[in-house]
């Protein structure tokens, strides 16, 4: 049986504790919530993140990079101009296909995170396979960029279970989910920069971890305006390296 939660993207499968991350979106600056999802204790148990300190108007910008669609360089240009740090979660395909962009990310002060080698459902593979998926990305990124550590993981498609979180934590990873997102990954359903801007700004809240996909032209075109308006509202963009809080966003 599947249980859909109103106002959320979550799916809870009653087949051994497999979850698809979802959350109640922020409105009017109030924090996003996972209280209704049924997996808060599991994320807390394994030190996973979905937002930061709710008392601070900090934002954490993250991108999922499964493949390149021609817009990451434009996004990097804006981040460099605006002096904003980001985390780019990459797959094995991206590492092999885009070494120059990976080098640029690291050279310009961004973090490269792990999005797995082959983008599998990591709740359905063995601990040994999980380790292999993550180790391949870490080693390949290191060979290309010289980045010697890799501390952050975003599970493909946001699918997770206790084993996946436990094994990745034992390997030194913090799983990073999100508290701001919208349907931006469909390259056939791009609706313009204003659409991206409106959907991101409507969800902003203190401590937000923002998930965007670099394949989206809308995101690339809206990036400068999103950053400028967020700063005008008193937000600052911080590196995920500085976020060492649990999923509740409390000290």
From TrEMBL:
This is Delta-lactam-biosynthetic de-N-acetylase. CDD domains: CE4_BsPdaA_like. Residues 57-238 form the NodB homology domain. SUPFAM superfamilies: Glycoside hydrolase/deacetylase. InterPro entries: Glyco_hydro/deAcase_b/a-brl, NODB_dom, Polysacc_deacetylase_ArnD, Spore_PdaA.
């Amino acid at each position: 049986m599947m249980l859909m939660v109103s106002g959320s993207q979550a799916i809870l499968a009653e087949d051994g504790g497999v979850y698809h991350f979802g959350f109640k979106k922020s409105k009017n600056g109030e924090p996003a919530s996972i209280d209704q999802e049924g997996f808060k204790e599991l994320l807390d148990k394994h030190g996973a993140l979905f937002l930061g300190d709710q008392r601070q108007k900090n934002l954490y910008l993250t991108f999922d990079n499964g493949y390149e669609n021609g817009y990451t360089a434009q996004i990097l240009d804006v981040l460099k101009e605006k002096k904003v740090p980001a985390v780019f979660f990459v797959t094995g395909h991206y590492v092999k296909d885009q070494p120059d962009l990976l080098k640029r990310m690291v050279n310009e002060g961004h973090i490269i995170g792990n999005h797995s080698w082959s983008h599998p459902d990591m709740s359905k593979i063995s601990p040994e396979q999980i380790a292999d998926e993550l180790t391949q990305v870490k080693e390949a990124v290191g060979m290309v960029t010289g980045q010697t550590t890799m501390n952050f993981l975003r599970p493909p498609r946001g699918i997770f279970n206790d084993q996946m979180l436990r094994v990745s934590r034992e390997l030194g990873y913090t799983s990073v989910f999100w508290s701001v997102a919208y349907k931006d990954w469909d390259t056939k359903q791009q609706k313009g920069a204003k659409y991206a801007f409106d959907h991101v700004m409507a969800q902003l809240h203190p401590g937000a971890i923002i998930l965007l996909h670099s394949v989206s032209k809308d995101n690339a075109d809206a990036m400068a305006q999103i950053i400028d308006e967020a700063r005008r509202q008193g937000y600052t963009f911080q590196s995920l390296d500085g976020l060492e809080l649990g999923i509740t966003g409390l000290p």
